[in-house]
Amino acid sequence: MARVIYGGMGVSLDGYVEDESGNFEWSRPGEEVHRRANEVAAQASAFLYGRRMYELMEGFWPNAAAGREEGGEVEAEFARAYVDTPRIVFSDSLESVSKDARLVRHSEAIDEVRGLKEQPGGPLALGGPGLAASLWDLIDEVQLWLNPVVVGNGKPFFPPDAGRTDLRLLEQTEYPGGVMWLRYERV
Questions:
Q1: Total number of domains constituting the chain
Q2: Domain of 104?
């Protein structure tokens, strides 16, 4: 059975993925962090995104894979993993997505993800706190890049109304600049 893994995003020490202005530049990964993120992305059997995360990712990575964005080999490696991995977009407002993605109504997300979990395959990489909040009970693992910054307010990584969720640490790695890779599973 496939596992749903939420994360892969930079998170501030106080639990936000964006500050109150929508800025997340403070979480821009260094080369070592990016290499590890590439390894994680390459293992995914599909990326699961809400509208906002899809538009953010789709606006850059296909162009980077085609050589239309500046960046080094590390970014190019992630871009290739991104375009080579199926993307499922959950949205009730989008009318269409790229030819390499599949659109599912957000209202059907729980049933769709339950079905995906029953199939064999690698991890289902869920990106974006909005989608994660609506699928919280289906998430098997949480992965985050903890950044040594406090932003004070913004978009929280964890759903504010999720209630208590017990997690068990599976992996932790420290990277330059004090960034920590943390991987937890639900218990």
A1: 1
A2: 4-52+84-160
Query: For residue 51, which phi and psi values (nearest 5 degrees)?
Result: -60, -50
Question: Within a domain: residue 184?
Answer: no
- The DSSP line for 84-136 is HS-EEEE-SS-S---TTEEEE-GGGHHHHHHHHHTS-SS-EEEE-HHHHHHTG
Q: Mind listing the pLDDT tens digit for each residue in 150-160? A: 999 999 999 99
Q: Tell me how far the alpha carbon of residue 140 is from its chain's centroid.
A: 14
Whether 172 is in a domain gets the answer: no
Q: Is residue 105 part of a domain?
A: yes
At residue 157, the 3 state secondary structure works out as coil
Task: Give this prediction's pTM.
Answer: 0.94
Answer for the pair 14, 152: CB distance below 8 angstroms, yes or no: yes
